[in-house]
Write a structure and sequence with these properties.
The protein has 4 helices and no strands. It is mainly alpha-helical. Helix 1 packs antiparallel against helix 2 and helix 1 runs parallel beside helix 3. The N and C termini lie far apart (about 80 Å).
Amino acid sequence: MAASGVSAPTRTEVLHLYRSLLRVARQFCDYNIREYTKRRTVDAIRDNKNLTDPSQLAAAFSDGKAQLEVAKRQALVYSLYAPKVVNIFGVTNASHSSLGAIWISVVELVSGFMRFYG
């Protein structure tokens, strides 16, 4: 403990904060935001891993806890207003049967070319 009365967080507390931040990052439905949150968490831990002053450690830890609360709120807000998920073809579930028919037609066309030119 330092003379100023500020106690540095323990290794267990820091790891718990790190895991909590990564856990909250997984809650974002948007890939870009999820990856940004993960990257920012990892970068902050790497940047602060060499701190030795207890007051700096305590400040970084309290900043991390504040960021955790912000991330939790944002994850909640993003989940409330999440965009509708569209598959990679941009078709809705109702038109999958027509997509299947198109796919079969393409396969028949390719196999016909293979028989002709093969």
